[in-house]
Amino acid sequence: MTDLDPIQWLSAFAALAEDNAELLTELDAAIGDADHGSNIHRGTAAVVAALTETAPGGPAETLKQAGMVLIRTIGGASGPLYGTFFLRFAAAVDSDSLDAATFAKAFRAGVDGIVARGKPETGDKTMYDALAPAVQAFDERLGEGADFAESLDAALRAAEAGRDATILMPARKGRASYLGERSVGHQDPGATSATLLVRAAREVLR
Ligand code: ADP
Ligand code: MG
């Protein structure tokens, strides 16, 4: 049974954030304040730096530390949301390895944490529109007997579809909501970075 290495996951997320920082900032320039790329890049780079400075602990400890660093360093609306995701994710990890069943439980807990924090609903044009379908697809595929990688594949496809669907949504949360209907036609930056988070997990599990 394959496990997801949290350090590899966080490192892959940081690498994707770096590669996509310009895109994320362009998306945020259209409907926000043009800082999402630099926010996510700065935050994930700080996580990688913190992980290399401290002695490696178990997955729960690593992911909790990541959450705290993200809250400190991302800023904006997305900092507390990503930070809460990882803190709640970590709190739900009760084993020494991130196997598929543990990931399923923790992924759901993390996304529930985003809901508790930001009160996003489906269709509000936020990161939740990528993450909620991803959690659901992961659980469904795992429940059907798929392995970890196949379930992450389904989660990634669902996140991508959810991200793409934000283009047609008027924003109802965060800065983009000030634009109302004028936000229609633009892909949500947070849904885009959230899809990178799922993609990172998929890439390191290969
Ligand atoms: P800021 O809007 O403060 O500049 P960022 O640009 O880093 O912060 O992040 C913007 C992203 O945060 C949005 O694209 C959206 O996906 C997400 N977001 C904003 N508010 C909420 C919320 N209440 N719930 C969930 N996600 C949110
Ligand atoms: Mg912004």
SSE blueprint:
Elements: H1 6-19, H2 21-31, H3 36-53, H4 59-73, H5 78-91, H6 100-118, H7 128-143, H8 148-165, H9 189-205
The protein binds adenosine-5'-diphosphate (ADP) and magnesium ion (MG).
Keywords: Kinase, Transferase
Protein name: Dihydroxyacetone kinase subunit L
Pfam families: Dak2
Jot down its keywords:
about 210 residues, mainly alpha, 9 helices, about 70% helix, binds adenosine-5'-diphosphate, binds magnesium ion
Q: Could you provide a short overview of the structure?
A:
It contains 9 helices and no strands.
Largest sheet: none
- What proportion of the residues is helical, as a percent range? 55-70%
- 3D shape: globular
C-alpha-based Rg, rounded = 16 Å
Strand content: under 5%
* First-residue to last-residue Cα separation: 13 Å
Bound ions, cofactors and other small molecules, one mention each = adenosine-5'-diphosphate, magnesium ion
Structural class estimated from helices and strands: mainly alpha
Question: Would you mind describing this structure in some detail?
Answer:
There is one protein chain. The protein has 206 residues and is an all-alpha fold. It has one domain (6-204): Alpha Horseshoe (Serine Threonine Protein Phosphatase 5, Tetratricopeptide repeat), CATH 1.25.40.340. Helix content is 69%, strand content 0%. It contains 9 helices and no strands. The protein has helices at residues 6-19, 21-31, 36-53, 59-73, 78-91, 100-118, 128-143, 148-165, 189-205. The longest helix is centred in the middle third of the chain and has 19 residues, at 100-118. The structure holds adenosine-5'-diphosphate and magnesium ion. It holds the Pfam family Dak2. Residues 4-203 form the DhaL domain. Keywords: Kinase, Transferase.
